[in-house]
Design brief:
heterodimer, A: alpha/beta, five-stranded parallel beta sheet, 42% helix, B: mainly alpha
Chain lengths: 121, 360
């Protein structure tokens, strides 16, 4: 079933690849270029899933997860981190903040679709 | 030393002309000794030569480096930024094109797989064959009905035989009656006046018998004609049936040949379709690998971003004469804290944890 998914990444090409991968399965995609932009885009917008990079300017991915979990309307919205970071300490930080999954870049479009299916399918 | 060498050569030549061997050997020894005592001339490297050729004022000094570095570093930062933009723009274009190809190949593959799952073109061929067999069966059924009609007509042949027999019986009865009438007329003549009335009756009976005989002959002739017509019709119908059966057999043969030929072509087509499908699947995997590989841009961009930040911080520190510049270890630690990729942390090529997925 088609879902609305917010992609947060400061790399335009990565946003593009995620959008192409998920749109092929019929999902509706909203894009944001960093944490602050994501919070602005989410105002008055209901999404089923948030896929976020970790290292971003202005507000990073971990900061974004913390900010979202503090808001009642997004407390139960699943968040997956999609990042080049594969350090266990960073993963633990993401888990503690409230992220549901952690995927290391580079990724295969099918892997991403399978993960999304598992989180919101 | 050069004088000794030249003198040695002159003495050696004299000894050669005069034939004094010991003098020649002595001169050669002197030449060899003088050559060994010559010192090799030092050869300057091009860079060294260039440095020596530069005037004293152009030699770099600390003061000049602090003036040059901000300008050079700004140019490096600009170059880095332009490179990042260029790479991002072009990789974005490539990603979009490859993703479109990947999607299109996927759609084609799905359609091809659906066709192949439904037994592909083979099912269509089987359907055509069934339809054609129905046509030939219809023709064969028509032939069978025609044979049944012919059999019914053949029965008429036996009826006409019976009719001819009956007509002949009528003729025989007429002949017998005629003979009886003739005898009656003789007996009536013998009776004289008393038999005159009976003679008239016998004459009428004779006329009737002659008429019956003529009618019997006529019936026999007509039945013969009918029989001939029936025989002719049966022969014509039989000839047509044989012709139809030959045509039907020929049609069946042609249909079988067409179906076999078509089947062979479709089998080859089916095989080609499956090979194409396999190739398309391989191409799709290659494109998928390209889509993964193109994500190098994100890693490279992050590393270049860190270098740009480092440069900016270094410039600020130089401009403000920051005491942090004196603590090299602390400065490098600060740099390392920014690292986000395994390559940056280890300073060498690392195997990627591509697609590693953890659910919390």
């Amino acid at each position: 079933m088609a879902k609305t998914i917010l992609i947060v990444d400061d790399s335009a090409s990565m946003r593009q690849l995620v959008r192409i991968s998920l749109a092929s399965a019929g999902h509706t995609i909203i894009e944001a270029c960093d944490g602050q932009d994501a919070l602005a885009k989410l105002t008055g917008q209901k999404v089923n899933l948030i896929i976020s990079d970790v290292n971003m300017p202005k507000l990073d991915g971990i900061g974004l997860v913390k900010a979202l979990k503090a808001r009642a309307e997004y407390r139960f919205t699943p968040i997956m981190m999609l990042t080049t970071e594969s350090e266990q300490s960073k993963k633990a930080e993401g888990q503690a903040a409230g992220a549901k999954a952690w995927m290391v870049k580079p990724f295969q479009p099918q892997q991403l679709l399978a993960a999304v299916e598992k989180l919101v399918g | 030393m050069y004088l000794v060498i030249w003198a040695g050569i002159a003495v050696c030549a004299t000894a050669l002309f005069t034939g004094i061997v010991w003098l020649g050997l002595l001169a050669l020894s002197a030449i060899a000794l003088a050559t060994l005592l010559l010192r090799p001339r030092p050869i300057a490297s091009p860079a060294q030569a260039l440095a020596e050729a530069l005037p004293e004022a152009t030699q770099p000094r600390d003061r000049d480096l602090s003036l040059l570095l901000p300008h050079a570093a700004t140019a490096w930062a600009d170059g880095l930024q332009q490179s990042r933009l260029l790479v991002a723009e072009n990789i974005g274009g490539l990603l979009e094109r490859f993703a479109a190809i990947h999607q299109r190949v996927g759609v084609s593959l799905d359609a091809a797989e659906r066709t192949l799952e439904q037994d592909g073109v083979g099912q269509g061929l089987r359907h055509c064959t069934e339809q054609l067999h129905q046509v030939t069966e219809a023709f064969a059924s028509r032939g069978q009905r025609q044979s049944a009609v012919l059999e019914s007509i053949s029965h008429l042949d036996s009826y006409t035989g019976q009719l001819q027999q009956m007509a002949r019986h009528v003729q025989e009865i007429a002949n017998q009656t005629n003979l009886l009438a003739l005898n009656a007329a003789i007996e009536a003549a013998r009776a004289g006046e008393y038999g005159r009335g009976f003679s008239v009756v016998a004459d009428e009976v004779r006329k009737l018998s002659q008429l019956s005989a003529t009618t019997g002959q006529s019936m026999d002739a007509k039945v013969g004609e009918i029989n001939h017509a029936i025989q002719s019709s049966i022969e014509t119908a039989q000839a047509l049936t044989i012709h139809d059966q030959t045509d039907l057999a020929r049609m069946q043969q042609l249909l079988d040949e067409v179906i076999d030929g078509l089947g062979g072509n479709l089998k080859a087509l089916d095989q080609t379709s499956r090979e194409l499908q396999q190739d398309a699947r391989t191409t799709q995997h290659h494109i998928q690998a390209i889509l993964v590989n193109l994500q190098f841009q994100d890693r490279v961009d992050q590393m270049l971003d860190h270098i740009a930040i480092d440069l900016a911080e270094l410039l600020t520190a130089i401009a403000t004469d920051d005491p942090a510049l004196g603590d090299i270890d602390a400065w490098l630690r600060g740099q390392r804290e920014r690292f986000t990729t395994r390559e940056e942390r280890s300073g060498q090529r690392e195997p990627a944890d591509a697609g590693e997925l953890t659910f919390f």
